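WARN no homologs supplied; continuing
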Amino acid sequence: MRQFDLAPLYRSTVGFDRLFSALDQFVSADAVPTYPPYNIERTGENAYRITVAVAGFTEADLTIEVKENALTLKGERSPDTSRKAEVLHQGIAARGFERRFQLADYVQVTGAALENGLLHIDLVREIPEAKKPRQIQIATSGATKAPVIEGQVQEAA
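OK structure emitted
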């Protein structure tokens, strides 16, 4: 795959760090982790659910952290020293992991639940009223208002 050098863009732009980081992640597809497997579902108009297969992990082994617009899921299992059996084949992954999800603006984590080896993380997008689209009334030409300049009302001409 081709490598793209984004350094010239870093030198001539301000405030686009997240965008360039996302581009770097998309370009370097070889570094995409595949463990643990996960699904992302839309459960409503503004509701989402991330389901991660974490078989063998307990609530104490898992950590969910939200910082800025990034959701980080970590899993670390302590070795089971009570088992004395010799493992002849280990097909079930018991390694630790760290999975990151980039969240869009105004997406909040509302809860998480672990059931049957699946970790469900519920998210909702709550757009503030100030950011929602609104209708602006158009004044008719017959109803002119006096212009306001520096807090003083001037007479209309």
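The CA atoms of residues 106 and 126 lie 6 Å apart.
OK
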